[in-house]
Specification:
The complex is a heterodimer of chains A (114) and B (113).
Chain A: E1 4-7, E2 10-13, E3 19-25, E4 31-38, E5 42-49, E6 56-57, E7 64-67, E8 73-78, E9 87-94, E10 104-105, E11 109-113
Chain B: E1 4-5, E2 10-14, E3 19-21, E4 24-25, E5 33-38, E6 44-50, E7 56-58, E8 64-68, E9 73-78, E10 87-94, E11 101-103, E12 107-112
Parallel strand pairs in B: 2-12
Antiparallel strand pairs in B: 1-4, 3-9, 5-6, 5-10, 7-8, 8-9, 10-11, 10-12
The chains are: A mainly beta (114), B mainly beta (113).
Chain lengths: 114, 113
Amino acid sequence: NAGVTQTPKFRVLKTGQSMTLLCAQDMNHEYMYWYRQDPGMGLRLIHYSVGEGTTAKGEVPDGYNVSRLKKQNFLLGLESAAPSQTSVYFCASRPGTQGSYEQYFGPGTRLTVT
Amino acid sequence: AQSVTQLGSHVSVSEGALVLLRCNYSSSVPPYLFWYVQYPNQGLQLLLKYTSAATLVKGINGFEAEFKKSETSFHLTKPSAHMSDAAEYFCAALNTGFQKLVFGTGTRLLVSP
């Protein structure tokens, strides 16, 4: 099992460019999450999904869009990148069964917007 | 409001000393609490979790945490620090909707020889 994988690992964008981050999990998990991590601020939830075809806003959704067309994939899009979106992005997933609430994290994508 | 507070953004200990990382949670969250560890340039890895089965929870790498409802605390401890424990540690709680985790801002543990 690869667990949770993220593509790409690093990316540099210019202001105004767009890109999509891909998260894939092979554990048949129902729930998937996108976080951003910034120094001194911990992890902040951007968007999440409770199942295929569903998405919901998290704590800091502005400037991002997501899609969950397949159960194993969760895409995070930046339509017009801004320097404030320079961050490390983490994807996570967890089962949908009651009592299984721990999340499994990917290795992260380091994004720099100039 | 649901919240998790980690006291101390940085904690420094000597190798072999006791490690104590503090976490307090708001009383409104369900009784599901977690500690994660993040090594440099890596994702978060689950250290241990509390799910109301026992108040003292043992995790990986010799860490343990005690759930104290009266103090709304879930502090992480390890009797003897090792250089390899240097990392950032995050406390998290399940939100009342049972869908999301609420994270603390993290504590960076520094271990000196």
